[in-house]
Amino acid sequence: MAGASRSKSIGCLVLAGEDFPQTAENLFQDWEMTMILKKVVGRSSTRGLLEYGDTTFGPKKFKYTTEPLKSCPADIQRTPLLHAQVFHFLATPEEVSEQIPQLISSRQECGITERPTIVWEPFPASCNPDDRPKFLEACRLVDVFSPNHFEMTALFVRETSHMFQPDKLQTYAQHFLDSGVGPLGRGCVVIRAAEHGCLISSRTEACTWLPAFYAPNASQVIDTTGAGNTFFGGFSLGLQASAGLVEAAVYGNVAASFAMEQIGLPSRALYGEKEMWNDSDVLSRLEECRARL
Fold first, then answer.
1. Cα separations (Å) of 209 from 104, 199, 288?
2. pLDDT for position 5
3. How many CB atoms lie within 10 A of CB 194?
4. Cβ proximity of 236 and 120 under 8 Å
């Protein structure tokens, strides 16, 4: 999404165990982004088992098969990543409440006075009605709160239905906005809803549903694993480029489309100054997505 000329503006922290595949490290290096890879001695890399309940990529179960390596702001001390404009957190509300003040403090100690944009993806297992007050409190520290539709529903009801209920999701999003997302309540809620697209809303922009790039059951969709995380990268870049939620969501949906066209990571190729992903031009796909709105 950033393009070959701006690839270094994309940063990534990788906490790796001693068994981290060299092929994966080489691939990330080939992407020419700013990557900080830290290998933890005596530990295995984080691995998990994701099982989908059916062919719709909807109902799923996940469990770690190794003890996860969890990052924190201390891991990016004295690295270029501390200067980033946007940070993506996959975290519980307790971790958000602890780590964001640590991040801001670390930046201030290095003379970085500008507040970054904080995007929060909630840790799925922490989403339950009993802990909703903790989520509401932690949301005041972030700029973008982005659960998927299952995670948002799980914050309000104990028995979640696999039936897609957009009206209820809008009500849930409004509940968080009324409580306050971000400093001074200027943040937004983005609900990622797989083949149903995404919902964007803030106190200044009404709830808006945007369609996914690919229609349900599209033949191009091979594996949706990682599409949500890829959405965050595109959304963050779009937010920086446009400062508008609709345009940011377009970037997010297009980025996610590349993640689901294969099992594993998309392929990148350079033809002179032109960068292609999965043999497709990102800018052309952006224009196609905008034209559908």
1. 32, 5, 17
2. 62
3. 20
4. no
The pLDDT value recorded for residue 58 is 66
Tally of helices (H runs) and strands (E runs) in the chain: 8, 12
Q: Is the dihedral of CA 32, 100, 252, 221 positive or negative?
A: positive
Q: What are phi and psi of 269, to 5 degrees?
A: -140, 145
90 Cβ contact partners less than 8 Å away, ≥ 6 residues apart: 121, 122, 123
User: Secondary structure of the chain: what % helix, strand, coil (to 5)?
Assistant: 40, 20, 40
**Closest among 67, 79, 64, 62 to 12, alpha carbons compared:** 79
Global pTM?
0.92
Q: How far apart are the C-alpha atoms of 173 and 245, rounded to whole Å?
A: 15
Could you list the mean pLDDT of each consecutive 10-residue stretch along the chain, which spans 293 residues? 70 95 92 93 94 76 92 94 96 97 96 96 96 98 97 92 90 98 96 96 95 93 92 94 91 96 92 90 95 91
> Can you tell me which residue has the tokens 């001390």?
77
Evaluate the CA torsion angle 32, 283, 245, 184 in order and state its sign.
positive
Which residue reads 């998927």 in tokens? 148
Distances (CA, A) of 292 to 211, 225, 233: 9, 25, 21
CB 33 within 8 A of CB 13: no
Pairing between β-strand 188-192 and β-strand 48-52 as defined by DSSP bridges: unpaired
Q: Which of these, 34, 141, 161, 25, lies nearest to 91 by C-alpha position?
A: 141
Q: Which residue has the tokens 């009605």?
A: 129
Q: Are 110 and 125 in contact (CB under 8 A)?
A: no
